[in-house]
Predict the 3D structure of the following.
Amino acid sequence: MEKSKEQARQLDHLASAPAPDRSFAAFGMPGFGGLPSAAPPEPRPILELDGEEREDELDALSDWVDDFFLPVYGAEVTTAAPWCLQWQEHDEVVAWLHALWLAYQQHKEPDAGPAGMLVWHRDFLTHTVAAIRAPGGPLSACMTSPDRPEHRLLPGPPPSVRTEKANTAEADGPAASDEPTA
């Protein structure tokens, strides 16, 4: 009886999954008992970032814009294609260029396939450049000639009537919201 129990234990042990071999754990090699690789953090739109995180992202974006984007795709500055040396102060332009940069990073990867960069040019670059450098776009009050550097932030639309009413009600306190409306 004792021998049968021992054989059953041995069969159970042999049938179970082997314990991970930790000899390669320090190398983090999948399938060798190493730690699973951590997934990279999901990218977030730059306008959702705050403080140092936003500054670091803006620094990296500025490097890409100055070292790659402008020398290759900057084209001539004209009234039909304005630019601004202080583009980082235009939130709309920052948002557009950040999205373009994230798409560039994705489409240059090998898993994007041989047409990855063509897709980036067709679906992202052309539309982004047209939006930010349009004659009536966010940079239209800025430099239209390299000989006349200019920077001006155009005012945006005011808040909606609904938002203004809510802000007025909050400022007046809870008593104002208890009053009947006509």
Q: What stands out?
A: The CA atoms of residues 21 and 154 lie 63 Å apart. The helical segments are 2-15, 51-73, 91-107, 116-132, 161-172, 174-178. The chain is about 50% helix and 0% strand. The radius of gyration is 29 Å.
